[in-house]
Amino acid sequence: MSPDARPQEASRPPISPESVVAWLVTQPNARGTLYLEHVARSYMWALRTMPAKLDLPPELTSKSIFSCQTPEELNQYWAILKTAPNYLQAKSKTGSAFDSGMKCFLRYLQFLQTGNAGSTVPENKFSSSSPVPHQEMLPLQAQNKIKIPDEVRKILRSVLYKHFTNGFRLNDDIELVRFREFTFQDIGKPINEKITDKTLTQCICSCGPVFHQKVYPVSDETIQHIYELVSQYFANGAQIIFYEQFYESHYTWLYEHCVISSEMLKTLLQEKFSTLVFTATYFGSIQGNIPVAIEDELIRVWGDNVLLTYQQLSERLPYIPLDRIKNALVQSANFVSNGTETYANLRNVHIEEEEKTRIYDEVLKKCTEDGYASLADLSLDDLSESNYELSEAGLQNAVFNLCLSLAFDRKGKIVMRKGEVLNVRVIMEKYCRTQEHCSLDELNGFAEELTGSKPAAQMIMEVGNAAMVRTGKDIFVSESLFHFDIPETDRVIANFITEDFAPIQTFTTFAAFPDCGQTWNLFVLETYCRRFSEAFHFDTFTINSSNCGAIISNKRHQSYVSILVDAVLQAGVKITEKEIGEFLTNQGYIARKSAKIKEIVSAARLLQKGQN
Question: Which alpha helices (DSSP H) does 279-380 contain, by range?
Fold first, then answer.
């Protein structure tokens, strides 16, 4: 499915997950009971986080599921997500939450579209006016410091866990009434009416952590389990844990036990680990630059391995997000890329000191002579044997970091002395002059080594024409293989040109041309007029491979537009864009119609008017 098929969302705000939750808790599930709020929130969590985990283009995965506002839009986007190669793997990590969440969201969108909710909001069974039957009272003691018997605490926690999994709201009279009535409903005994709301609230607060003005039924066992996981991880030498990653790794059981977010997890951890450092995104035994902290962790888990993949590192550092691992690898001088999703640890790469000195001297000499050196030209056979696990590119990266980085800069495979500016055109022209034959592909490859990116085709052509002789569409040859008889060649060209200029395609035979050491053709003729002729020059709008352009007498100093205007007027072409465009392309002055045609038409009309 194309991106165009996705819903357009720029002008519409996304649907709030909170509105979906508020609606869903009023709806019956497959068992006929209402959805619990913490279950609904777990579904919304899965919908929020799933797209970013899929191997799809960023413009697809960065989109929010909640920007879909009709069932059709949601089904279209769901179909796109399913095309990700890791869709099933990512979905499996959410249990059934993603599929269930999508189905619930689809129901919600259908409700918005049709107005049919499928069920109505149940009446509040626990209104503040409901009478409490007179039964034996449940004793609670209220003092300045609340002390609750274990048996009573157990009852209160049971009520919390059964009826307030999404938290008990503080400072809410209705919540207190509901709590009292739920207690009576569960154990058959109401809370003593003499227990004030303030005292009851204090008792409830002692039964679980308070987060965002709510008391949550998080058990001591759950908190202890979190403590043990964290303690064991740090005991193995780890220094940092990212809250979000820890929460995501244990999402299912944390949410089931009412730890509803990574922010709440942070609150619980701060209470339990008072000696650790807590930052906005991670906690641990160190504080400072995040890439540096992660680099230390990478070094710790790397061991004796030379190479590790992203996947292996993610498994060894389960509580650090993979994108932060990748960023730390890129920024660190201790690791180098060895290929797709694989890095090498330079501490485990072996290069003897004398070999480092040899490489340094070789590069320095080359930079002194040529202004640059190429890592691809270094002799690294012996190093390749002793570091056999490294790829060719990985070994070159390691050599630069270990042997050259203090005194040299690099761009791709090209190395220069620090502070020197890389003049790509000059270096390429110098390179061309050392070659006997060179193809466009070779020039493109060399330019890409220099710049680290794909070069502009026009620049490559210009360099080839400036330093070599073009003999074909894709071939340049050293000018040392040519010996042009300039006076005789200019005389032959003059015989073809009667009006000081002519399209180069006018030359259909080269029988009259003197021997030049190679076979004459239009490409050779173009280079000759560009660089060697004393009587003529060559001009065109853009360098091309179609032999389009004109050979012009050096007596004429006008722009190429002016030359083409003269050609149009001399030929008596009708002054319209269509007629002029067809004439110039058919004659070979231009390769294709362009915006320049309008300029030529305008100039031709002015000249024609002046002549009349």
Answer: 290-302, 310-316, 322-331, 353-370
209-221 per-position pLDDT tens digit: 888 888 898 888 9
**Interacting residues of 130 by C-beta distance below 8 A, sequence separation 6+:** 177, 181
Q: Report the distance separating Cα 476 and Cα 466, nearest Å.
A: 10
What is the model's pLDDT at position 31? 67
Q: How far is CA 89 from the centre of its chain?
A: 21
Amino acid letter, 320:
I
Residue with tokens 């270094």: 378
54 and 98 in contact (C-beta within 8 Å)?
A: no
In the predicted structure, residue 377 carries a pLDDT above the cut 90: no
Q: In this model, does residue 315 exceed pLDDT 90?
A: yes
Which of 248, 267, 284 is the endpoint of a domain? Answer: 284
Which stretches does DSSP call E strand in 36-163?
A: none
* Contacts of 599-604 spanning 24+ positions with Cβ under 8 A: 599/561, 600/561, 600/564, 600/565, 600/568, 601/575, 601/576, 601/577, 603/561, 603/562, 603/565, 604/565, 604/568, 604/569, 604/575, 604/580
pLDDT digits (tens, 9 = 90+) for 348-372: 999 999 999 999 999 999 888 888 8
Range of the domain at 248: 220-284
Tell whether 500 is covered by a domain.
no
Task: For residue 157, give both structure tokens.
Answer: 């926690």
Based on the fold, state whether residues 14 and 70 are members of the same structural domain.
yes
E strand or H helix at 437, and its extent?
Answer: strand 437-439
Task: Answer yes or no: are the C-beta atoms of 415 and 363 closer than 8 Å.
Answer: yes
Encode pLDDT of 474-487 as tens digits. 999 999 999 999 99
Q: What is the C-alpha to C-alpha distance for residues 167 and 175, in angstroms, rounded to an integer?
A: 10
- Both 315 and 272 in one domain: the answer is no
Is the pLDDT at 6 greater than 70, yes or no? no
Q: Looking at the 3D structure of the chain, how many domains does it have? A: 6
Its pTM stands at 0.58
Residue 265 one-letter amino acid: L
Cα separation, 23 vs 147, in Å, equals 39
| Separation in Å, CA 377 to CA 172, 415, 451 | 76, 11, 17
Phi, psi of 49 (to 5 degrees): -95, -20
